[in-house]
Amino acid sequence: MRYATVEDVVARYGRTLTAGEASQVREWLEDLSSDVRMRIPEVDTLAMVPDYARLVTRVISETIISKLRNPEGLRQRTVSIDDFSETKTIDSSNSSGRLSISDEDWALLLPVTSGDAFSIRAVPTPGFADDWDPGWWR
């Protein structure tokens, strides 16, 4: 199952895709959908909520659009005309050139869990230990 379509990408990108780009985008959609399923096994259940489904579609579409806009993963490119020179600087955060969902986007997609498992309460919480009496200090 894909969580976004070529049409979702086109709508967010703001231009039509060539036949070659559309074919590449279809493959990337499969790849990213697979990545999401592997990392979030319950994604199909979560995607039943319309807002979550839209979030998944947006994250996948924006990841692909980022790759379409900057396929080489460059941060800077300088071109000089006389005595031609060209300088390219690879963006260290995207230096692999791989198509991957950013950590910030994974944080949006991953379900939030309660933080009380290993937390220390800095202030007393009313009612937290009202009936707790181990009796060892008596």
Q: Secondary structure elements and their pairing?
A:
Layout: H1 6-13, H2 19-39, H3 43-46, H4 50-69, E1 74-80, E2 85-90, H5 103-109
Antiparallel strand pairs: 1-2
Give a description of the structure.
- The protein is mainly alpha-helical.
- 43% of the residues lie in helices and 9% in strands.
- The chain contains five helices and two strands; from the N terminus they run H-H-H-H-E-E-H.
- The protein has helices at residues 6-13, 19-39, 43-46, 50-69, 103-109, and strands spanning 74-80, 85-90.
- Strands 1-2 form a two-stranded antiparallel ribbon.
- Strand 1 (74-80) and strand 2 form a beta hairpin.
- Helix 1 packs across helix 4 and helix 2 (19-39) packs across helix 4 (50-69).
- The model has no long low-confidence stretch (mean pLDDT 80).
The Cα radius of gyration reads 23 Å
Largest sheet: 2 strands, antiparallel
- How far apart, in Å, are the first and last alpha carbons? 62 Å
The overall pLDDT average reads 80
Strand content: 5-15%
